[in-house]
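Lesson 9: reading folded outputs for more than one chain in a single document. The general rule is that every protein is listed as its sequence immediately followed by its structure tokens, and records are never interleaved. Here is the first one.
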Amino acid sequence: MLKRLMPKLRNKFLLFIFVLSSVTTFIFMQGKNKVVNLNENDWFITADSGWKGASNGQVVRPGNNFWPVELRYQLIATDLWPWPEIDFWLKFKKGHDLSKYSGIKLVITSQQKDEIYVYFMAEDQNLEILKPLAQKCRLNGKPNQEIFLLFSDFKIPKDWSVRAPGFNSDFKWDKVNRLGIHKKGSDKEKGKILINKIQLFSNPRLKGNRIERARPPRYYTFDLTLKPGNYDNEIVISDSGYNPVGPYFYGANWGVWLDLPDKEKTAFLELKVIRAGGPFMDRYDWRKSKFTFPGNNRKLNMVSPDEFVKYCRDIGAEPLIQVSALGDDAAENAAELLTYLNQEKGYGIKFFEIGNEPFIWHKVHFDLWDHPCSLAEYFEIFVKISLALRNAQDKIDPNFRIKIFAPAIETSWLNWGSFSEKDKQEPVLGRFLKMCKDFEKDKKSNPKGIRLIDVLSFHLFPSFKDNPSLNGEVDSSLILESAQTWWNLDYVNKYDSSLPLGKASGVIPALKDTIKNNYPGIELAVTEFNVESKSMVNFNPLTKVLYLADLYGIMARSGVNYFMQFCLNSSDQNTALLDDIDNITPLYYPLALFARYFNGNILDVKSTNSEKLSIYSCSRQDDIVIMAINKDNFAKKARILLRVKGGSDFSLFFPAMSLTCIRIDKNNPSQKAECWEYGREQIN
């Protein structure tokens, strides 16, 4: 049960280290409270892990005094490194023994609310390279904030561990080489952090400031009674509903540049599919488990296909593997990968996606593809890979059916309103499907009548950052309103700049019509989605939580077959479900509630004032589940009339700006209903 499991969950990318020579000192000053001051002669800066032309910083000290130290930064994105970040380091002359201490205290003055990493570095006993141990802390934007970090809470970041195979998981606190402050952010971001003091402490009873961005939902039970009074909403739920939620509907994208996240926390989400996809998979050598960055020949380690498959299967999820569509040998490589997975290893992998966002290859993979990819070029590549995958699987077992996803197109990069090439008016996805259907019927080119595609896949990241009419939390209602762009054919888009402004999109109905008119019978997948595609866009997390929760209900009701959130784990806490040291983010629990409970036959819902209170309901074998998303700044009192077998009429309050999950036992409707609330009280 969710109420029993959730309490258990309460409880860098590889740093390209530059060995900088300097003489520093480490002065111990033992006091009555067993506090030690850290004083150093100098600080060092590693901007963006050493990428040329990226972020820059400056360390300013007040004359001969050590404290305070002002860390100034200007974050700059480049073509080689679009995720700006910077490191400030205190480098010790030799390894120092911190094993007698329990943690570190920082006194910091910051300009704004922000998150930073605090790092310790020590030499790894196996690899003889510096190994990081990190913890995140939240700055409150106020003077002299005291932050206590326990050594026991520090973890090896996932981007380092995956790129250092064979490292020793132990950390030697008796030989610490340096201390670092790491700041991530967005392009052109400027700021400063004032370090007023850094101290070590050895008080075992002192609690650390663990960064818990979200607490589990509030759980309670209530009587199914209809109380008299005035109501803001009347909701009628009946059996004349929609489709069942697809068996693989709930999914997420693994952050392939990181090690796999905490297995227990991922398992709790009850995801049905995990995608290994994105631009890095277009540059992935699966035989060596390595990939490269654009414009850089350095080969970096990635998790092997075997590790990824085992991880998915251990938590009950099906892997979706994106095969590279770049290179002259792409089809051969794809066939060999499938043969390795399904013949040599016998994994029975059935989901494969061909390429990632091909129409922006010239922007993302500029060193491998130097011009905008046309539909004809992609289709030629796609056909070769699709046939290679089908033929490879037929040689292994013709009765085992794989599903091919394509083209993983990123609509927000293309502008939905001009979604066609200059000489054609028919949208690109419609033309793509028509080409697939025509090829399937072409006896000369395809004598066996091999089916090219099973699932039409696309990506969409609603964007509000660049819209001047939206600025801050006060406009959250406008952002939440714009979720209608996904389903409402009559809704004129005013705020989401990833789609044409001033026009109605009706994304899902339009794509379902595209399938019906050009290639009937195939499925529809959103293999990447979130709010904002750019890194480190600081939204009010509650706005984002409610937008995505509304979206889960919309997509399930609309009959989308696969819906894969980007992403499962990332150093960008604004996007991820788990960050790169496995901290839970505010986006985690809403997906957990939907994936665990909202997975039956969709019921019909009619509601008054539905713009402010979105209601979704499903019927499962033993219960009825209701999801309510209150997008208003005021609580709503609703009368709910259940016109389904095993249902009882009742009334309930929905808190302002909240998600509520209700579970009603069909077999015992007189029993108390279970309820989970998630909103302002749960999000830090």
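And here is the second record, again sequence then tokens.
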Amino acid sequence: MREEKYEISGMHCAACSASVEKVTRRLPGVERSDVNLTTGLMDIVYDEQQATPEQICEKVRKAGFGIALHPDRAAQQPPAEARDAAADALRDQKNRLIGAAVFSVLLLYVSMGQMLPTPAPLPGLFSMETHPVNFAVLQLLLTVPVLFFGRGYLSSGFSALLHRVPNMDSLVAIGSSCSFLYSLAMTFLISDVPHHVHHLYYESAAIVLTLIMLGKFFESRSVQKTKGAITRLMALQPDTAVLADSGAEVSTSSLKKGDVILVKAGMKIAADGTVVRGSGSVNEAMLTGESLPVEKEAGSAVIGGSVAQDGVLYVEVTCTGEDSTLAQIIRFVEDAQGKKAPISRLADQVAGVFVPAVIGIALLSAVIWLLLGKDLAFALRIFTSVLVIACPCALGLATPTAIMVGTGLGASSGILIRSGEALEITHKVTAVVLDKTGTVTAGKPTVTELLPHGISSGELLRVAVTAESVSDHPLAKAIVEHGTGAGVQPSAQITEFENLSGRGLRAVLPDGGVLLAGTRRLLEENGVDAAPLLPDAERLAAQGQTPMFFARDGVLLGIISVADPIRPTSADAIRALREAGLKTVLLTGDSQAAARHIAAQAGIDQVIAEVLPADKAGVVERLQKSGEIVMMVGDGINDAPALVQADVGCAIGGGSDIAIESADLILMRGDLQDVPRAIRLSRLTIRNIKENLFWAFCYNTVGIPVAAGALYASAGILLTPMIAGAAMSLSSICVVSNALRLRTKKL
């Protein structure tokens, strides 16, 4: 199976996107085809043995739309011309709107001015009463430019009709064309029957088209704002970098792995890399959501697109192009915005039959009013109003605009969401399962207590540093790091070293002395009496710490306790989850005692301990079978199966690549407090989508019957095509504006 993205042009409403989906899904071998109206992208999965890109493109073009393979924008910084393309398109849209508006206002003055209590002055040559033919021809001449400026909607609408996939443009094209052609026929008949001058509807054809253009302009401008997250991310990548060895300024795209670049205060870091020299603070807020600057020194990793605030850094490039962190984030956000949420299916299904149904309702309404004795002009007014007021746009925009704003808000807060489906499911989560090490805890062992026996604490630490300096074990590294921080160095060089799996190590000093470091069992095997410190060891173990015994030449020297401390923000995060009504579960391979101690510190509801990595997914599955909708939060390779099994997999930033690849959500900051923030973001977005869908359905449910004349007999209310056009445009603008409200929410 092959997955590709295509850019679809010429779409103006949900019926358009539904048409593209329909024709591509009919191709043999196509497993999935989703078209996002807001981004203009089609995400298609197909069997290469049965379908080809050429066949896909041919089908879409035959349906009346443009198609091109979507370039990988994340792979490199797009040129300035590409970044300005959207602005140019919007400017062109604005210029056409202004042209149409000027002629429409003049037309309105000519056509409607004569009906005012005090008629608007016109030269006698164009008087409706004395020169009706001239009056009609003047309106015709003012209408033609408006049709020219709005020709895109007319050509698209009739093209879609010819390909039997009518869309919103088809409704506008039919309505405007009927009014224009009817008026044109009346114009030719006026010389014989002057009274026909009262049956001109040029202004309806022109004003409706202008109002649709006005609504689409405001809609496009608003939709551009929903794409702000991608735009801001792309803008982070600087165009140039300074090579450290020559001082030359080069294009960022020419950088390669191993180059060393110079970064001064105020400059953007051009690529992912490692600091080889210098120090300073870096602002990574746009990428991770972390507002505080991060201190960097030799050996520190830096992210391309972040900004050096002070100091000077010499950075060796480690990743460029599509492999960079920024490129991956852009791709992640773009994918999320392009994929549909399940909640959009109802709107898609409605949009697929909406336009044909509206055309049927318009025809039926016109025929009924003709049968009831109304004249052709009245029936035409009804027909046009029904066509124009119907708006599949609001339905089509309801979901994708909210998802675009929601995922963009998440990205700016350091929360990356893989798809609209993940965003939707997250709001339904009832249980959050948390890995312990590296998720609830810091993931880095530290020394917590020194318990010397017969010697000073300083001497115990010196012996421990001497013994552990030759080991790569995480606990050994924690002790050496603690000793280095206290200014303690190894007292002698180890001449012999033996790593005793599961028990500790044995080291021989130059003077023949033997050091033992490890478990109680190791000491007992070597005849060392550990009894004096056993109560302390048991107390430490009950608290989830690891007591390390030390002895020299058969004499007990003391215990150094090492533990993985709880993250400073974990307790607050768990409290926020519980306040949101969610059950919390700690899932770990550690002992019951250690797990319960951490759970008590963090306030976690349930503990499932001593679970093998391979069994974690099974635990998640059991919770799902008991009725829970599970979010799994983890960071390690051993968490990957559970992340995939969970309804929503959430990877802590800084975790393994496998964990991140398996997750639906990624928390860039590595802060557990982003878990409740992600759930709140999902709830806000889904609520916004439901509001949008409600108003879109409500608008069409009320608007179409009123336009069809449902209130005319009882209340004398009848919509004109102009009012219908304004209402249709307003509905789309309201939906997009409501989605934009999400940007103001605090997570």
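What the second record shows: Confidence is low (pLDDT under 50) at residues 73-82.
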